[in-house]
Specification:
single chain; 3-stranded antiparallel β-sheet; 12 helices; 10 strands
Length: 295
């Protein structure tokens, strides 16, 4: 199976929301469809409107369930419409520059004649297609194969920190991101039911070559309480096996330097379009990477 790379704004990766395993798979599929339609040039790039997607129901069902089960697909679409994510810019609410908003993952869904029609809000579109330099690229194949919603979220967080050895986050912030402020109040339960579940699944897939990253973590305590977590990331490139993600990350600064994007805005727009194209067609990344090195 060819690897499919999709991407989303980092703000979406770290925003506060909770989706079930199947709801998240539906949303992954929607991201793929939105980005495909956008990159094909069928959507205006500077002025967004709500986007209506028409998806063959059997294709969607097979992707999210691995079998024909239209009832489960309908149930997932119905529940996804009621879900939303919220984001703020981190400032105090009384600050003059404070920003906050909440948006649903989809506006509506409809099934007719074997086709599912799904509408994505114009407020959500920039998080899926108009990516700045701060975005999370990840394998759709890996994301769809995960069997825990916590593995899905932790995989995205690991991919957000692509190109680094790891990241550090407070237990409080991670709970907030996963909407777990009122659940698993004891750290031991949070560790057992969330962190260890994701850690085991990603490591198992990594060991059989179906995932390019896994994590270990250490705890930082204040007295007897665990307050911070330091995640160490392990990738295939530590064994000299580079993924298309790694190669793309190598190409981006080369493009930016060659086209002087910091001083030439038009070139910056062009390079972003090239990166989006490579994300959609990852099979082009390796030969391009090789050719540039030869030059």
């Amino acid at each position: 199976m060819n690897e499919i790379i999709i991407a989303q704004d980092n703000r979406l990766t770290t925003s506060r929301y909770e989706l079930s395993l199947i709801e998240k798979r539906v949303f992954y599929f929607i991201i793929k469809e939105v980005r495909g339609k956008h990159l094909n040039g069928t959507v205006q790039r500077d002025l967004f409107d709500d986007m209506n997607l028409k998806i063959n129901l059997s294709d969607l069902t097979k992707e999210i369930n691995g079998r024909e089960n239209n009832i489960e697909t309908k149930k997932a679409l119905k529940s996804l419409r009621k879900r939303s994510f919220e984001w703020d810019n981190g400032l105090d609410e009384d600050h003059k520059d404070y920003e906050w908003f909440e948006v649903g993952f989809i506006n509506y869904s409809e099934i007719k004649n074997g086709v599912a029609e799904v509408q994505v809000s114009k407020k959500l579109m920039p998080f899926l297609v108009e990516l700045s330099g701060h975005f999370t690229a990840y394998s759709l194949n890996v994301a769809m194969s995960l069997k825990s919603k916590w593995s899905q979220r932790m995989y995205e967080l690991c991919q957000k920190w692509q190109g680094t050895d790891g990241f550090r986050i407070s237990v409080e912030d991670l709970r907030k991101t996963f909407v777990l402020e009122g659940k698993y109040s004891r750290y031991a339960l949070f560790n057992e039911r969330v962190l260890q579940v994701a850690k085991r699944e990603l490591k198992a897939l990594y060991d059989i070559g179906q995932c390019d990253v896994y994590f270990e973590f250490t705890e930082e305590r204040s007295g007897r309480s665990v307050e911070m977590l330091r995640f160490k990331l392990f990738r295939k490139n530590t064994m000299n096996v580079k993924t298309t993600h790694d190669m793309l990350l190598e190409l981006i600064p080369v493009f930016q330097k060659l086209f002087n994007t910091s001083k030439m805005p038009k070139n910056d727009v062009y390079i972003k379009s090239v990166i989006e194209h490579l994300q959609r067609y990852p099979n082009l990344i390796e030969p391009l990477n090789t050719r540039i090195k030869e030059i």
